[in-house]
Design goal:
Elements: H1 2-15, H2 23-35, H3 39-43, H4 47-54, H5 60-75, H6 87-97, E1 105-111, E2 117-125, H7 135-144, E3 149-155, H8 165-181, E4 184-191, E5 196-198
Length: 205
Amino acid sequence: MEKEMQNDYAALVLASLPASLGDQRQQLCQQFIRKCPTPFALKKASRVEREQMLSWAPEMATVFAAIELGQQVAKSHQEIIGHAYSSVELGREMVAHFQGEEQERICVACTDVHNDIIAWKTLFVGGRSECVLYPDRIFNYALRNSARGIIMIHNHPSGDIEPSDQDYSFTQRLDHGCDIIGLQLVDFMIVGRDKYYSWREERCI
């Protein structure tokens, strides 16, 4: 299986180079594979290494354009605004949304009186294990969008969806703040690699 994947990788590199290169096409492909023998090696290539590969020939730009296109496709997700989801449906959608994400991100979905999502935004981006949150920015975003409720969604890049003490504490603060300004905390979700945790489903809110 590993050999098959390696062959597929090499074939994709070759396919991304223009056939008009003739014999140089195969040479550039082999040079590329020597520099980045696996997709992971390519993923970890530094900016300097990428610039060096681009200098081999003008046609190398098409290889990196194909890589960028693949990354854009991988990060794309279904439009959320305007849809009404149950926590189960939203949880599944968020698992797909955060696939491959290596940084912790905090997203806020604003809902109307029917719990339809009317606005959506990533408000905070952190590292692999933590992300600093500011409740005032969350409430400001919700009020600017005339929200009646908010759904907080954040991912754990580690894949562990068990809520931390900080998660519990922040949820309580957020719920209290919502009560004061007349918003409803519809849900607070943690998303892992292939599953999610919902405070609403666990009746923690």
